[in-house]
Design brief:
heterodimer; A: 483 residues; alpha+beta; six-stranded mixed beta sheet; five-stranded antiparallel beta sheet; B: 455 residues; mainly alpha; three-stranded antiparallel beta sheet; two-stranded antiparallel sheet; 16 helices; globular
Chain lengths: 483, 455
């Protein structure tokens, strides 16, 4: 029987060999693909083990992870709803948004720059400690923007035009991210459902995304830039000045706001058309430039492109395939032009910074758990949408619009403010969308700002950009300058 | 003892100091240390403090093992020195993981806890092992009870099908219930059937091996000689159909094939037998939804249809996720989330251990089983009488095959079935049966070395 026993031993050996092989296959060879399977919740559980890094402003956390006794190990805490558009939320049950999602790799220590921490964790057996993110946000500016918007739905973005650093990003209504980070699944899901169902869409960051807005007259800045860059216009170029303008190929008329002429003469200059924000002259300029030239200018400012700050900004849209009538409407920001406040502040910032558009950025520094700097982005130029000369001319035109024009509510005594208001129509009986974008001081810009207010700021079709949006922008700019 | 005769060094065979027992003692203390380390690590990583119930999970197994060790010193001093430590190691590791799963489940409010029961069953099972060593002073004594073993084996197998007594758990009719207790008589039937097979085959092996015509150089057994294999085949298929468990069916049939092969030396039995079983399983996979489901889940576990189906591949895939999560070195005991896999404490304990101990731990566990099985097969090599050989190989092979079917099922070598991982998994009947097998192997190994010594 010895021969048979040897053969049985061999069979047993083969059986076990197959088990060695199969476990190696699972635990080494296909381990990564199994880990990546969407039905594998273990990567979520892994995230419990990690103490996420803080999100800091001037060294003070606006989001931090606090040790708990439950299975989730760490509770994410947020100091104020004022920052909800920036931080987003981190929930074990409903995912993450905002920086919590966009910078998740830094916050959980998984970025390649955190390699040494990962090695350290491997050998110590402890989970990786996440990195902390210091923001470019100025808390005073953020508070000013938050308070100035009050109960109005809308958004404010303020950036330093010289560096691209984002100084404030507010979207209203905000939300209390603590309601979503709670470890009570029933409560978290209920809160999430409530926030989702609310008509005011608090979970949407209006500054960079959402449904986008018709820009109305603030888009005249882009058209003016295209006109000056074309070489066929100067600020003094004379444009026909009727009280109404028949759109080519239609029976529809375009009127100026107030339904009169623009300045009472037979012609009006480009600069005055912008200063008084007249639609009739811009409709003509738009047709003269053509849709392609306007679109090219818009794209140089960033239209049609997705940028990450590192929050993902929804691309703004200048439509395609327009006839002359439609082109005329886009020239004062109507028809299908759709923008984010971030895009409009980029237009102002490029003009403020002598034609050089700096890439907007929210992150000042990423710190490892032992406070070493891992990543500190330096200011980088995004594009040059207009020449220095054109920028200077536009600057002057915007200064006039605030000082002597229809954007007067942005005036700050002792400071030269440049700006442009907008009051966009959304349909026959729909409330207006109110805008302001501009910068200050005009001769040495330190802040560019864009403000959008939805639903006419609660005043329906009586709300105006100058009456509601311009004062908000003024307070934001003051917060920067009065420091 | 040729050398003893030549040198005239007679006192050497007196075995005043049983060296193998000292090795065993040394290994046992090493294993006790490992068991303590596992429990301590689990408490520290999940509860962050050592609690007094550490002793409750460590001491009973330790003391019971020491008792067996003491009995071996008195009653079977020449027994194999590795088998007991390996059994204690696997039992202790399984208990630690079950305790660890309990902690996780208790934290989320579940009440189906197993560790306390497992401690009690461990003590009962090792006591049974001790009793086997104590009372079965010679395994040859078992040969007198071959007929009784047959009746007992078949009776135990049929028990779950008795109305009111039998219970269907997770789709398989393998349990009996008495009050709040459930028991898997099939586990004990294994031992009875091994004794029966060994006794039967020793008596009939010559006629099974020698007779029959020779066709193209291959002996064809006569129909009469194929009788026993047909009976076992029908019985296995009956288990498959009536108790709805492919694993149990395969276990008994594979066990019989190996034993008849060792007894007769005729590989044809294995070929024919595997063909018959394969055909039976194939037909069953076409006819029985449950078998078809198991095959489908085995071949294509990741399709969302299979994954979402009731009785589909969810458990299998979750087990794979767990093992993959463990990777090479594992998350450490208490560091993973093995509780995500259904039945992690019993059918899928190997996935739980694979997650927390990694591939490295899997290799250690598989090596422990392999070593245990080879020590058993080795007893077969050293024994001179055929009954002992068959008994040893049967007892070892049943551990090997069961381990293969279960771990192979979890790691997708074979379709998943409802067997338990010997010594590791939660479950009283399985522990009891496997510790009795260990008791028998220890007894066999003692007589083997004595026979060798005295020959």
């Amino acid at each position: 029987m010895q021969k048979e026993l040897r053969r049985v031993s061999l069979v047993i050996g083969v059986m076990f060999l197959s088990l060695f092989a199969s476990s190696t296959g699972i635990q080494v060879i296909s381990a990564d693909s199994l880990a990546a399977d969407g039905r594998n919740v273990r990567s979520v559980y892994d995230s419990y083990e990690t103490q996420r890094g803080d999100i800091l402003i001037d060294g003070e956390p606006i989001a931090k992870s606090v040790k708990t006794d439950d299975e989730y190990r760490y509770l994410r805490e947020y100091t104020s709803s004022r920052y909800s558009a920036i931080t987003g939320y981190f929930s074990f049950f409903n995912g993450a948004t905002g920086l919590e999602a966009a910078s998740n790799d830094f916050l959980t220590g998984k970025n390649s720059s955190q390699f040494f921490e990962q090695i350290n964790a491997l050998f110590s057996g402890n989970p990786v400690t996440g990195g902390s993110i210091e923001l470019t946000i100025d808390p005073k500016v953020q508070k000013a923007a938050w308070d100035a918007l009050g109960d109005m739905k809308g958004a404010v973005v303020a950036i330093d035009p010289v560096t691209g650093n984002i100084l404030a990003m507010v979207s209203k209504p905000g939300f209390d991210a603590n309601q979503l980070s709670t470890h009570d699944p029933v409560e978290a899901n209920e809160n999430y459902k409530n926030l989702l169902e609310r008509k005011s869409d608090p979970l949407i960051n209006r500054a960079i995304g959402g449904d986008l807005y018709a820009p109305g007259s603030v888009f005249k800045l882009v058209v003016s830039a295209a006109a000056l860059e074309s070489g066929n216009f100067t600020p003094e170029s004379k444009i026909d000045n009727p009280s109404k303008f028949k759109l080519p190929g239609t029976e529809t008329y375009v009127y100026n706001s107030g339904e009169g002429t623009c300045g009472g003469r037979s012609t009006v200059s480009l600069a005055d058309a912008l200063r008084f924000s007249c639609n009739v002259p811009f409709a003509q300029v738009g047709i003269q430039l053509g849709q392609d030239q306007i679109r090219r200018q818009a794209e140089l400012f960033g239209f049609g492109k997705s940028i990450s700050v590192p929050l993902k900004v929804t691309p703004s849209v200048y439509p395609r395939g327009l006839d002359d009538a439609q082109t005329a409407l886009t020239a004062f920001g109507q028809f299908d032009v759709r923008v984010t406040p971030m895009q409009m502040v980029m237009v102002s910032a490029a003009i403020a910074n002598q034609g050089r558009l700096m890439k907007p950025n929210l992150i000042e520094n990423v710190l490892s758990s032992n406070l070493a700097s891992l990543y500190a982005p330096s200011p980088s130029e995004y594009s040059r949408p207009v020449s220095e000369k054109t920028a200077g001319l536009l600057n002057q035109m915007m200064v006039n619009a605030v000082a002597n024009g229809v954007s007067g509510n942005a005036q700050i005594s002792g400071v030269k403010v440049a700006g442009k208001t907008g009051t966009a129509q959304n349909g026959k009986d729909e409330p207006y969308t109110l805008w302001f974008t501009g910068f200050a001081p005009a001769d040495k810009p330190r802040v560019a700002v864009a403000v959008v207010i939805e639903d006419g700021g609660g005043m329906g079709q009586n709300g105006r950009g100058n009456s509601l949006a311009a004062p908000v922008a003024r307070k934001v700019m003051q917060a920067v300058l009065n420091k | 003892m040729v050398s003893a005769i030549l040198t005239g060094n007679v006192p050497k065979v007196m075995r005043v100091v049983p060296r193998s027992r000292n090795i065993e003692a040394l290994l046992l203390f090493f294993v006790f240390g490992i068991n303590a380390y596992e429990l301590a690590q689990i408490q520290l990583s999940t509860l962050e403090v050592l609690r007094p119930d550490f002793w409750f999970y460590w001491l009973p197994l330790t003391l019971a093992a020491l008792v067996v060790h003491g009995i071996l010193r008195r009653k079977a001093s020449e027994a194999d020195s590795l088998i007991l430590p390996l059994g204690v190691f696997l039992n202790g590791l399984g208990l630690a993981e079950i305790y660890r799963l309990d902690i996780a489940k208790a934290a989320s409010g579940a009440t189906d806890l197993f560790a306390v029961k497992q401690v009690i069953w461990t003590v009962v099972a090792i006591a049974a092992c001790a009793a086997v060593i104590w009372y079965v002073t010679s395994h040859l004594f078992l040969r007198r009870y071959v007929f009784v073993a047959m009746v007992a084996g078949i009776g135990l197998l049929l028990l779950p099908m008795v109305p009111f007594l039998g219970q269907n758990i997770n789709g398989a009719q393998l349990w009996i219930g008495i009050g709040p207790f459930t028991f898997q008589p099939g586990e004990l039937a294994k031992i009875a059937l091994i004794i029966f097979f060994a006794g039967y085959l020793v008596n009939r092996k010559d006629s099974l091996a020698m007779v029959g015509r020779k066709v193209l150089g291959v002996h064809i057994p006569r129909a009469r000689e194929l009788g026993p294999i047909l009976v076992i085949w029908v019985a296995s298929l009956a288990v498959l159909v009536l108790q709805r468990d492919l694993g149990t069916s395969l276990l008994y049939f594979g066990l019989f094939l190996v034993m008849i092969y060792v007894a007769t030396g005729r590989a044809l039995y294995v070929v024919v037998g595997l063909g018959m079983f394969g055909t039976g399983a194939l037909v069953a996979s076409q006819v029985m939804d449950y078998v078809a489901g198991r095959f489908g889940a085995w071949l294509d576990p990741f399709s969302s249809e299979r994954y979402d189906a009731i009785g589909g591949s969810y458990q299998l895939v979750q087990g794979l996720f767990g093992m993959a999560h463990g990777g090479l070195l594992g998350t450490g005991l208490g560091g993973g989330v093995p509780q995500l896999v259904p039945l992690a404490e019993s059918d899928f304990i190997i996935a739980a251990l694979g997650e927390e101990l990694g591939l490295a731990g899997m290799f250690v566990i598989l090596a422990a089983y392999l070593l245990l099985v080879y020590r058993g097969v080795r007893i077969g090599f050293t024994h001179s009488d055929d009954f002992s050989k068959l008994l040893a190989v049967g007892l070892s092979f049943v551990i090997a095959l069961q381990t293969f079917i279960v771990i192979g099922g979890v790691t997708r070598v074979v379709p998943l079935t409802g067997l338990t991982t010997p010594l590791l998994a939660a479950g009283g009947s399985s522990l009891l049966a496997n510790w009795m097998i260990i008791g028998l192997l220890l007894r066999l190994s003692d007589t083997a070395s004595r026979n060798r010594g005295e020959a």
